Amino acid sequence: MHSAKNAAAMLTRTASHTARTVLSKFYSSVATPRYVPRRAVMYVPGSDQRKIDKVAAVAADCVVLDCEDGVALNQKEAARNTIRATLEKKRSLFAGKDCSVRVNAVSSDLWKDDLASVLASQHLPTTLHLPKVDSTRDIDMFASEVVRLLEGRHLEEPLRVFLFCESGRSLLRLAELCEHGLGLPPPLLLDGFVFGSDDYCADIGMTRSSLARELLYARQKFVSVVRSFRLQAIDLVYIDYKNLAGLERQSVEGAEFGFTGKQVIHPCQVDIVQRAFSPSPKRVQWARGLLEAYEKHQTQGAGAFTYQGSMIDMPLVLQARNVIATSAAQSSSTHTDGDLRAPSYSSPLA
Amino acid sequence: MHSAKNAAAMLTRTASHTARTVLSKFYSSVATPRYVPRRAVMYVPGSDQRKIDKVAAVAADCVVLDCEDGVALNQKEAARNTIRATLEKKRSLFAGKDCSVRVNAVSSDLWKDDLASVLASQHLPTTLHLPKVDSTRDIDMFASEVVRLLEGRHLEEPLRVFLFCESGRSLLRLAELCEHGLGLPPPLLLDGFVFGSDDYCADIGMTRSSLARELLYARQKFVSVVRSFRLQAIDLVYIDYKNLAGLERQSVEGAEFGFTGKQVIHPCQVDIVQRAFSPSPKRVQWARGLLEAYEKHQTQGAGAFTYQGSMIDMPLVLQARNVIATSAAQSSSTHTDGDLRAPSYSSPLA
Amino acid sequence: MHSAKNAAAMLTRTASHTARTVLSKFYSSVATPRYVPRRAVMYVPGSDQRKIDKVAAVAADCVVLDCEDGVALNQKEAARNTIRATLEKKRSLFAGKDCSVRVNAVSSDLWKDDLASVLASQHLPTTLHLPKVDSTRDIDMFASEVVRLLEGRHLEEPLRVFLFCESGRSLLRLAELCEHGLGLPPPLLLDGFVFGSDDYCADIGMTRSSLARELLYARQKFVSVVRSFRLQAIDLVYIDYKNLAGLERQSVEGAEFGFTGKQVIHPCQVDIVQRAFSPSPKRVQWARGLLEAYEKHQTQGAGAFTYQGSMIDMPLVLQARNVIATSAAQSSSTHTDGDLRAPSYSSPLA
């Protein structure tokens, strides 16, 4: 019941089943789009060939070739060309990784040229990141441009999308944006949202403190809403990249809050972040033990029971199943038997 | 003005007055349904006769005979029978207590059988608890089934209802659920909501920490919304039942946040919780003194004034009245001159 | 690019531009209504002539002559008369200050008489404060009464308005109230919202603690929503006016959260609050240095770069611009080249 294989099977849920049925009409290679874990989401400026060439040595689940904030205005065109050349000739740098591209926001003059360049490549990225999404109109404009540019092409897999929440308005409308994003037309498939804390702070007029207490409401609302829609939720950047202890503290906190991953701006941050967003061996062991005890007590007719000093009933059992499923999904992410959505249980299994 | 008797009279508010007018057409024994305090809300597995028989010795305001998470799947039928027999023959065990029953969620196959069994009893429970309410449809299905089962019966009092918020979706729609719940058809009467933190955590994919900092947004949003509708708000379970210091800290915190009570899973938790959700003698004394000073200053024509080193104006006066009213309601809960709703003042008295 | 003068110019944004275009048809003296900083918002009971006469010596940006909670019921008429006489004959007491009047709530019987008295004065206050706004209807009633009373009068400037959020319902509907308030008819112009924490606590039934942890959700939601609409957001009162260390801690926290100012109930609180809501010289220096480094790197074609040990890209640049703009607006508030709205950047400058 709680082996890695069964856990992966448990990931199958009604919502994703429906999505799969629809999607299998569009993509030949997979009946079931795989679950793509993204614990560390690392940005690399699209204009920086030297940093791009080092990507293969970085163990981040997801690398984002950036056209947006990491690229100076006079380097936008160079970034597009470098990214396209990388996709065409150096796709192998991204083996085992989610190869993503972040285009500029639809409120800029740049995004259409970004998309035109990136989507003209023979080898597409796995995922597109769209920053500064403030309204459903932003999503629609982006989607119709992508669909137009990909017309007539046959894709092996859906093209995943991440949207960015980076303003007060976006946070205010987040549920509406999630719902709208889940209706993206094929071949697009919404995988999650990123919380852009520094743009959010600039928008609200906040001052960042090291413990980010001022962001508690925004981060916890963000994760509550995004995870309600079974989407991945990516936490804020820790910009003080020399402070690894601070990074670890904030990463562990983000995982506790329910985020599924975290943005990273330097390779030295990757290991700490990946570890924080993986269930620890101790927690996996706790979960296995709890599930074994649960089955035993169920057979004996006991509902609630005591395990390691705490009173356990169904909600804790579901949490333990989450731990096992997440752990399994992360270690088997190259297979295709995962789920479209981040693992989460809201109701007992039938 | 601030004696216990006057305080109870002050509980009468427009909203409850309207409800009373409607309700008095349906229930013979009381013109004014009484306020039912529920500081400690203790679950007892419906299948566990031994624990049920000990209920009389427990000082919890509210005891919930559970058909749901505390009962193993193969014991559901046994739990129904035990609960029904308890209601028929051992109702005296619950003297002075809110005798509640928690049925299974409408998303299960179990809830209709639960209701059919419990509502066939000659002596009804005071309150029904409905877990995992994710939509207004859940409320409607539950209500129409209860109304159908009680057709033709004459009730002395309204049948109170508590709904559970235990998922991201439920928290997202909480205001809508409150509003809808306040429109429950007679003889049902919504008394409040329970926050089911462990199911919520499983749904979002959170990891629980001992200080529950990860739940700050969810708990504070929950209490803000629920109390806006003048409903009781019941805080999360503290599952580490051997850690009484931790329980006390969290109980005091919950009372400060505005919760009116807390879920309890072991008799040893009851006293600490009941105390935390009662205004302390010191606070009652603070409130009495403040109200006396207020009346004196009003007569003398002073609006704001200093009391115990703080600047006092109307909002603090209202808080002091809350303290007196809550204290009075808890000590006079067996009388029928209380309010339908939890005490709260949002506007000065006329 | 980052001088005070340029910063003030940078304050011009699309939303305010539109407002300006509309407003310039109504007010003769200014093409651009100025930005009115309100770091400390100090209440003075309208019935207390002695305290009013001391106002000139207090360095608060904004002084509010109060008809509401600071005035005893039997002093309401006296307060109206004193305020009107003050406006007529002692307007010079308020030189360089925002001279405001808080009327009673529309749910009281008092507000119409308050308005009739205050608006009959030849010299109007700069700003009207309306407490306890729970619905859009409250706003409409207030607006139509003001418009009626001012009919036929020619105003030099718009009459600014602050609305108070002081209940759970108000917090629940805050976005709707902001949106509605932005549509106030001329000569009214919404400048912001005040968070009335003590009435909010009375409404929810909370107990205040010294660190106000129980208000984290309410304050952070309030500031997020209000600032999303580019309005000023005024933080709670610190009622323990003898504890200046506690006041400073809470003021700094409020500024970090994104509040633009704070309510004050005693002159001894003013300096600490004004300082906390002004960018410190050190932060202004940080911002100037960052913007210089940014321009240098942009010219050299670098997008992200390191500054003082942190990775900087566009969002941090926007935060630095906020600091410069706020500092400039506060020091040049008597000029008319500021903005209608509190400074905030959500998108890069063209």
Automatic annotation (TrEMBL), chains A, B, C:
GO biological process: regulation of cobalamin metabolic process
Compartments where located: Mitochondrion
Catalyzed reaction equations: (3S)-citramalyl-CoA = pyruvate + acetyl-CoA; propanoyl-CoA + glyoxylate + H2O = 3-methylmalate + CoA + H(+); glyoxylate + acetyl-CoA + H2O = (S)-malate + CoA + H(+)
Cleavable signal peptide: none
Residues where Mg(2+) binds: E166, D199
InterPro entries: Aldolase/citrate-lyase_domain, Citramalyl-CoA_lyase, Citrate_lyase_beta/mcl1/mcl2, Pyrv/PenolPyrv_kinase-like_dom, Pyrv_kinase-like_dom_sf
Highest taxon in the source lineage: Eukaryota
Keywords attached to this entry: Acetylation, Hydrolase, Lyase, Magnesium, Metal-binding, Mitochondrion, Transferase, Transit peptide
Gene Ontology CC: mitochondrion
Location of the region described as Disordered in the Swiss-Prot/TrEMBL record: 328-350
Binding locations of substrate: R102, E166
Residue ranges annotated for the HpcH/HpaI aldolase/citrate lyase domain, each copy included: 39-267
Subunit structure: Homotrimer.
Family: Belongs to the HpcH/HpaI aldolase family. Citrate lyase beta subunit-like subfamily.
Protein name listed in UniProt: Citramalyl-CoA lyase, mitochondrial
Native source species: Hyalella azteca (Amphipod)
